[in-house]
Amino acid sequence: MSVIKDISQIFPKHLFWDVDPKNLDVQDDRDFIIPRALIATTAETFAKDIQPLEKLYSKTQIVRELQKTKERISNEVCKLVARRYHVRQFLRYQ
Q1: 59-64: long-range contacts at Cβ-Cβ below 8 A with a sequence spacing of 24 or more?
Q2: Contact 39, 73 (CB under 8 A)
Q3: Rounded-to-integer distance, Cα 54 and Cα 59, Å
Q4: CA-to-CA distance for 14 and 9, rounded, in angstroms?
Q5: Is 29 exposed, middle or buried, given 0-12, 13-18 or 19+ CB atoms closer than 10 A?
């Protein structure tokens, strides 16, 4: 995990349509950045989409933020994350 200040060079701009990504702090705003980085991922794009997150955050941080987020992360994304990190499956919606 490296120290990165400007996430606008890492993630597609459309994921942060309502904020200026240059104003986000990698550590202070991880509860916002992590779910947004995966909100539009699919089974086909997941491996590519999660790689930038893995450069910034530990797997524990990624899982924790997805488990508690209020963003509309699909159950499929939760399953993909759980499978990738060999953790107990969790769902956002029952």
Answers
A1: 59/84, 59/85, 59/87, 61/30, 61/34, 62/34, 63/87, 63/90
A2: yes
A3: 7
A4: 12
A5: middle
What's the pLDDT at 92?
A: 85
Global pTM reads 0.89
Average pLDDT, the chain: 92
| Tokens matching residue 78 | 């939760």
Residue type, 91: L
The secondary structure of residue 91, as a DSSP letter, is -
- Please name the residues in contact with 4: beta carbons below 8 A apart, sequence gap of 6 or more: 10, 26, 55, 56
Instruction: Tabulate helix, strand, coil % of the chain (nearest 5).
Output: 55, 0, 45
Structure tokens, 53: 């997150």
